[in-house]
Write a structure and sequence with these properties.
Blueprint lengths: L6 E5 L3 H13 L3 E5 L2 H10 L4 E5 L8 H11 L4 E6 L4 H9 L4 E4 L4 H26 L12 H13 L6 E4 L6 H10 L8 E5 L5 H9 E2 L11 E2 L1 H4 L4 E5 L6 H13 L1 E3 L6 E3 L3 E6 L3 H6 L5 H7 L2 E4 L10 H16 L5 E2 L1 H9 L5 H15 L4 E2 L1 H20 L2 H11 L3 H20 L4 H8 L3 H10 L12
Parallel strand pairs: 1-2, 1-3, 3-4, 4-5, 6-13, 6-14, 7-10, 10-13, 15-16
Antiparallel strand pairs: 8-9, 11-12
Helix pairs in contact: 2-3, 5-6, 5-7, 13-15, 14-16, 16-17, 16-18, 18-19, 19-20
C-alpha cells in the first residue's frame, strides 16, 4: 500500500472534540491544525495546503458546515471533506454528499472507525501524490514536463484515473508521450510495486501477436521449442500496456476480449487456462471509432478498453513547454555523454518554439541529443538547428503570411512535392550562409544574392530565418 502523511484541518466549535481529534490524528502520524469557526477554517485553507478537512456540520457563527463544505470545495477541489454531527438529518447527509463530502460521521465519534477512515484516506492521498509526481517528472518519475494549461489538465487527469482499477485508453499522435502517461498511471496505482509489461502491437508480426499476448506451449508451432508465458501472465497483479492497439488483428481482438471478460488466459497450442489479475492500459494514434465503423476493430472490445479515456496533446498544442523540454533534454544528454553543458540561445529557443513538431516530444528529444553531441561550442544557436528545422518551419511561416505561396505550402504539407522542397531547402541554405558571411547585414546579403532587400526579407520570413538582434534594418 502507498500511504501518505496527511495534512488534516479539524473544524469544530467544541474544544473537547478538537482536542480528541488532534490526539487521534497525531497518534496516527498525521499533521493537524484546528479552527473553531468556518471563517477561521477558510483562512487556514487559503494559508496552507491540506489533504483532509474534518468539519462539524453545526458550526456556530456565520458559516455552518454545509456552507464551509461548499466554499472549501469550490476553492480547493482536491480537498477531501468529512462531515461530523450529533444532530444530522438524512436530508442534510444527502445534501452534503451532493456537494462532494467524502463521508458523514455521527457523534460521538468512534475512534476505530476514524482510524480505518484515516488509513483509507492516507492510502488514497499517497496514490494521488505518486500519480502527480509521475505525471510531472518528479524524482523517480518520467519526463512528462510542462507548465502549460493542457499539461496541467493532463496531470490532473492522470491523478484521477491512476488510483482506480478502470481500463484506460490513451490517444495521441506518435511521439507525444503515450507510454510515459501509461507508466505514470501505473506508478500512481495500487499496482505500482507489481510488473508494468509493455507490448507494441504494431511491432510484432500479426501471426505472432497472439503468442506474445497469451503465450504458447511447447510444439504449438514451428520453432516453439519450449513453453513460454505471454504478456498477460507476465503482468499478473500489475499492468499490461498494449501500445498501438489499433493494429491488433480481429482474431487477436476476439481472444483479448474473452480474456478481459473472464480473466482467464489460454496459451496458443494449450488446453489449460490460467487466471490472471491485470489492469489493461491501451494506446493508439489511430481513430478507433472510424476503425470500428469500417469493421477493422471490434466495437465490444473498444467499449471494454475505453472506460477511462485520456488524450495526450501534441507538442504543437503546448508550445510554451518547448523551451522547458529542450533545456531539460540538453542537460540530460550532456550529463549522459559526459559533455560540457550547452546553453540554448534565445534565438534558438524562438526557432524551436516556431517549429510545428510533427514528431512531437520524441522528435525534440532526438534533436537535442543530436545538437548536444554535434554542436562544437557551448551555445546552441538557430544556425546550428537550421538544417533540421527549415522544412516544417517554412510551411508554418508560409501559412502565417496568408499568401498564395503559403497556400501552396499548406497543400504540400499533406503531399510534399519533393523536387520543389529540395530546391527551396537549398535556397534557404544559401540565404543563411550568405547572411552569416556578411554578419547578418541584410542589405549586403541582398546585393550579394542579386535580389532586392524587400524580396530577401520575404524569403527569410518564408523559411523561418530570423536573427532580428543582428539584422541591419538601415
Amino acid at each position: 500500500m502507498s500511504e501518505a502523511r496527511l495534512r488534516i484541518l479539524v473544524v469544530d466549535d467544541e474544544p473537547g472534540i478538537r482536542e480528541q481529534l488532534v490526539d487521534l490524528f497525531a497518534r496516527l502520524g498525521h499533521a493537524t491544525s484546528t479552527a473553531a469557526t468556518g471563517e477561521l477554517a477558510l483562512a487556514e485553507l487559503d494559508a496552507k495546503p491540506f489533504d483532509v478537512a474534518v468539519v462539524d456540520l453545526n458550526l456556530g457563527g456565520g458559516i455552518d458546515g454545509i456552507d464551509l463544505l461548499r466554499q472549501a470545495r469550490a476553492g480547493h477541489p482536491d480537498l477531501t471533506v468529512v462531515l461530523i454531527s450529533a444532530r444530522a438529518t438524512i436530508a442534510k447527509a444527502v445534501e452534503a454528499t451532493k456537494l462532494g463530502a467524502f463521508d458523514f460521521l455521527e457523534k460521538p465519534l468512534e475512534p476505530k472507525r476514524l482510524e480505518l477512515l484515516t488509513g483509507h484516506l492516507a492510502e488514497r492521498a499517497g496514490l494521488k501524490r505518486r500519480a502527480r509526481e509521475a505525471a510531472l517528472g518528479a524524482p523517480g518519475g518520467f519526463a512528462m514536463l510542462g507548465g502549460s494549461e493542457v499539461m496541467r489538465k493532463l496531470a490532473a487527469e492522470i491523478e484521477r484515473v491512476a488510483p482506480t482499477q478502470g481500463k484506460v485508453l490513451i490517444t495521441g499522435e506518435n511521439g507525444s508521450g503515450k507510454e510515459l502517461v501509461a507508466r505514470a498511471i501505473h506508478l500512481g496505482s495500487r499496482r505500482a510495486e507489481r510488473p508494468f509489461v509493455k507490448l507494441n502491437c504494431a511491432a510484432i508480426p500479426k501471426d505472432l501477436v497472439e503468442s506474445e499476448i497469451f503465450g504458447y506451449e511447447k510444439g504449438a508451432f514451428t520453432g516453439a521449442m519450449q513453453a513460454k508465458r505471454g504478456k498477460l501472465e507476465a503482468a499478473d497483479g500489475g499492468t499490461l500496456f498494449l501500445d498501438e492497439i489499433g493494429d491488433l488483428s480481429l482474431e487477436a481482438q476476439a481472444k483479448l476480449l474473452r480474456a478481459i471478460e473472464t480473466g482467464e488466459v489460454e496459451r496458443v497450442g494449450g488446453t489449460k487456462t490460467a487466471t490472471v489479475d491485470v489492469r489493461i492500459i491501451s494506446a493508439t494514434h489511430k481513430n478507433l471509432p472510424v476503425l470500428v465503423r469500417d469493421g477493422q476493430f471490434r466495437e465490444d472490445l473498444y467499449f471494454r478498453l475505453n472506460v477511462l479515456p485520456v488524450h495526450v496533446p501534441p507538442l504543437s498544442a503546448r508550445r510554451e513547454d518547448v523551451a522547458l523540454l529542450a533545456e531539460h533534454f540538453a542537460r540530460e544528454f550532456a550529463e549522459a555523454e559526459g559533455l560540457s553543458s550547452k546553453e540554448l540561445s534565445p534565438a534558438a529557443l524562438e526557432a524551436l518554439e516556431g517549429y510545428s513538431w510533427p514528431g512531437n516530444v520524441r522528435e525534440l528529444r532526438n534533436l537535442m541529443e543530436r545538437a548536444v553531441i554535434l554542436v562544437p561550442g557551448p551555445v546552441i544557436g538557430p544556425a546550428d538547428l537550421h538544417d533540421w528545422l527549415v522544412p516544417v518551419t517554412r510551411r508554418a511561416a508560409g501559412e502565417g503570411e496568408g499568401s498564395g505561396e503559403g497556400q501552396e505550402d499548406r497543400d504540400a504539407a499533406g503531399a510534399p512535392a519533393n523536387l520543389r522542397e529540395e530546391l527551396e531547402h537549398r535556397e534557404a541554405d544559401t540565404i543563411l550562409r550568405v547572411l552569416e558571411e556578411v554578419r547578418w547585414n541584410v542589405t549586403q546579403a541582398a546585393a550579394q544574392l542579386g535580389v532586392d532587400r524587400t524580396n530577401l526579407h520575404r524569403k527569410m520570413r518564408k523559411y523561418g530565418i530570423r536573427r532580428n538582434d543582428k539584422e541591419d534594418e538601415a
